[in-house]
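Hi R.,

Here's the chain you asked about this morning:
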Amino acid sequence: MNIMGLAPAAVVVLICIGYGRGEVTAADPVLPPATLLVPDTDQVIATIRLLEEKVKQNPDDFIAYTKLAGYYLQRLRETGSNEYLTLAGRAARTSLAILPPEQNYGGLVVLAQTEYALHNFAAARDHAIRLTELNPVKSVGFEILSDALLELGEYDSARRALDRMQGLKETTTGTQTRLSKYALLHGHPHEAAHYLLEALVLALEQSPPSRETVAWCRWQLGETAFAVGDYIAAERHYRDALVTFPGFWRAVASLARVHAARGDLPGAIALYESVVRSLPDPSFVAALGDAYHLAGQDQEAAAQYALVEKIAQLETANGKLFNRQLALFYADHDRKPQEAYASAMKEYSIRQDIYGADAVAWTALKANKVAEAKRAIKKALSLGTQDARILYHAGMIAAVAEERVLAHAYLTQALTLSPGFDPLQSTLARQTLALQK
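And the predicted structure, written out as tokens:
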């Protein structure tokens, strides 16, 4: 649904329908209590070392290379460290060089997963299509295919892939999480949470359950709750993830965001500092800088902002993992507007999802390209996604375009949906909203 054409009051009503602030229907699974799952880190690292030694001794062992790639990807998910991406890609390609996909389905699976993690979404899509051709009754090919298509903005094709996946009658954690993502993108957060609960139950039924998978499901439930401003539920899910997987980097960073959304800057700073020490992801570093800035620690904020650029540019030299993050960072902080816009446009030429359109809209506004910003934000809003940041951008664009009624409606929606969606930007939203009356 494209809400740009709706009357402001109608849009506000639509925004109020959704996750339901913790509402659970009779059809929803019961949230399982969080328990500590025994880590297998030492075992995984030992297995990696054994496999690395094995391929040294036997360079033609394609199975060992495939297993290595899978374990490297597991370590990537557990730690967030991109060094495992390079290792996984090298192992997967070596496996397929030894034996082609027709006889090496597992090798193609890990290569497709690696390309997706590297943000090479077109390559991941093409590999996934090949997987579905080689084995049309396995869900993994359709899972990767739907992932890649959603990132590329090919939503109709993604829906067809999901339909094929559901038609296999193979209900797995992977299938349910994909259905959840599709529902969330299309403005159905309660439905998304339902699928995630099912995914969590299925993950816990595995023997033994993967602590990273279980923690990820709990973290994603928190993200779904946070998106609609239910910070109490979000915090509960994040803390449950940390019970399952102490120190899980995704949950630590998201818990910091909850503290920031509630105005607890010391709590947010402490948590962001802890996660940045082990994983200096640009989005976490930028959030820490914003928390410092709001706390009046401008020198510390400036140091974090400089670090964002350094990290993102280093990574960009080897790939495109942080292109969008850096463009949005520039736009959020009124830096290098033309460079941010050019970067967002370059990425959007390949990856035409709604978040890419949003990045183009926001950077175009900062580059004083208001007409372009208005066109792009319509595309960003086209699915009816309940995302306060996109609505905020729509409101700010309308304000600059002197469309006061529309600006007031969108800014109100953003702040009603998630009042603390971003500590720095939500403050600007309130200031701008006050001027639209």
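DSSP finds 23 helices and no strands in the chain.

Let me know if you need anything else.
M.
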